[in-house]
Amino acid sequence: METFTRRIIPCLDVNNGRVVKGINFVNLIDAGDPVEVAKRYNEEGADELCFLDITATHEKRKTIVNMVERVAKELFIPLTVGGGIKTIDDISALLDVGCDKISVNSSAVQNPNLIDEAAKKFGSQCIVVAIDIKKIGDNYDVFVSGGRTNTNKKALVWAKEVESRGCGEILLTSMDKDGTKSGYDLEITNKLSTNLNIPVIASGGAGSMEDMKDAFLYGADAVLAASVFHFGEIKINELKKYLLENGINVRL
Known about the structure:
Elements: E1 7-15, E2 18-23, E3 26-32, H1 34-44, E4 49-53, H2 65-73, E5 79-82, H3 88-96, E6 101-104, H4 106-110, H5 113-122, E7 127-136, E8 139-144, E9 149-154, H6 155-164, E10 169-174, H7 186-195, E11 200-203, H8 209-217, E12 222-225, H9 227-230, H10 236-245
Parallel strand pairs: 1-4, 1-12, 4-5, 5-6, 6-7, 7-10, 10-11, 11-12
Antiparallel strand pairs: 1-2, 2-3, 7-8, 8-9
C-alpha cells in the first residue's frame, strides 16, 4: 500500500446559479442547486470540492462571490473556486468568503505574472492552474475561454512554466474526454505527473471506478469528476473502498 493519500474531488460546474453537466464542454443539463449538492458531497466523504463558474470568463464577469460564500458555509472540506478570476483582488474576495484555493485558467495564460503575484501573496498552496487540453495531431494544445480558444501553447511546456511561477497544483482537463465516460486521458496525465513536482488532478472522462484507479496508477494525485457523482452512478464511499482494495491509499 502506498503511503501517499490520493484525493477524490467532485466538481460543480455552475451556470446561471445551477449545477450543470455537459459533454465536450457543450449541451448542458441541470444537476441541481450548488448549495444542496455541496452539502451532499460533504456528507458523502469527498476529500475536496471544486466549484467552477463555467461561463464567467466568456461572459466577461466575475465569479458569483455570494454563491461561493453560501457553498463554503456548508463545507468542512477544502473548496477550490474558478471562473472569471483576473486579479489579486478577485482572489482576495473569494478567500475572504471561505474558499481555500482558487483556480485560474484563461487569466493565467493572458497574464502569467498573476501566478507569481498570487503565489507570493497567498502562498502556492492556494493557487491551482487549470489547463484545458485538446489533442491536435501529436500535440496536446492548451485551450482557454471555456474551451473556445486555442492558445497554441503545448500542455507540458505551459505546465512547467506555471510550476516555475509558483502554482501549487494543476487541474488537467481533457476536452476530448469531457463528459464521455470513456476514461481519463492517461497519456497526458502520466506525462505531466512524471515531469512535474506539483500535484496533478486528472479531469475529464470518468465513467467507472476503474477509470479512477487507472488515473492514479498513471500518476494523478487526485481525480475530479462530475456527472458520475451528481447522478449517483458512483458513490464516493464505495469508490474509496474499491480503491483501497486495489492498493490505492485514500482517506475513509
